[in-house]
Structure formats: structure tokens, C-alpha cells
């Protein structure tokens, strides 16, 4: 489980840094990498931390900041398989290192291990900006040339999507883990109601409706997959 958490932290962190920082990126990446390695060492998972950095470096190459991935949806699928394998191969541990011992002694929830905490943190960080990359890749794969090559955005882009998407994914993630399925259904239905005026002006092309459906479904599936990963890791531990 610790390996999956560190992997998602590394990939989500590098995507967020690419989004927020335009200057001195190598320095920012180096600092973030050092923090991740120190964290993994404190959690007695230094090998997993180094491997997570390697995967994040590959991710930055195959998934550019704009446009589609260099190999389509394959990077997303391989990342999902890798995270699942990490949960299976490295479940929750009884001895989570110095960082885990400090968490057990002073953390607000002694029944939540440091492995679970890092996995949840990794999922949340991944859902912020990497989730947008996953949605963009899916849109490019399905809509083709109707998505602008330079930016990855569709001509029918809906307003506020880049901000609404992460918030929506985090809500779906949290409500799913909390078991609040009725509230989850209400949130998903509310999005369709709010977007209906924009979609209804779509005309004969149907680009807005297709963009909304593909983007929303991929976003929801990403959040649900993250919630399932946490649930699976906790049950397996």
C-alpha cells in the first residue's frame, strides 16, 4: 500500500508542479523529489520512493502538459495496473518505520496507519491535476481533431471545467469512501442540471454534449477507481 501511495504522490505532485510553476522547474522537481525520498525513508520504503520518482519521470515524458499522450491511453492504463500491483504486492505493514511510529504515537487517528494516510493523500493529489490529464487524453482519443492540438481543449469547452473537474473528483472520492451514495447521486445529477443550458445550445454538431459526457464519465471513473484503491488497500491490510 505504501508503494501505491508514494507512486500517486509522485505522479500527482509532478503534474501539479507543472501546472503551477513555469520558472525554475528543475529546482522545484529536485526539491519535491528530495522531500518524497525523505518521506519514503522515514516510512521505511526508500526503494518504493525511488521507483515512484522513476515512474513520475516517465509519466512527464509520455504525458505532456497539453495535447494528448504520446501513446494514447496506454500510460493511464499502465499506471492503473502498476498502482493495483503495488496494493497487492505491498499491503499495509505492521512496522511502518519511524514516520509511522510518530503517526501512531501522536496522530489523531491511531487506527489509521501511515500507509493508509499516504495512499489517501496520493489519491487526492492525483485527482487534482493528473485527473485533468486523464480526462484530456480520453477526450483527444475519442474526439480526435475536434480537440485543438496545441491545448488539448475542445472548441466546445464548458466554462470552469478545469476547476470544477478536480473539485468534482474529490467530492466523488470522499463521498464514495464515506458511503454517502445518495448524496453522491445528487451531486452527479446536479452537474447535469447546471450544465444543461450550455449543452442545450449545442446545435446539430453535438460537440458540447459529447465533450460533457466523455469528460464527466472519465472524471467520475477516475475518482471511483481512486476510492476503490483505498478501500481495497484497507480491506487487504
Automatic annotation (TrEMBL):
UniProt keywords, alphabetically: Membrane, Transmembrane, Transmembrane helix
Segments traversing the membrane: 27-60, 72-92, 112-128, 170-190, 211-234
Taxonomy, superkingdom: Bacteria
Protein name: Uncharacterized protein
Lineage: Bacteria, Bacillati, Actinomycetota, Actinomycetes, Micrococcales
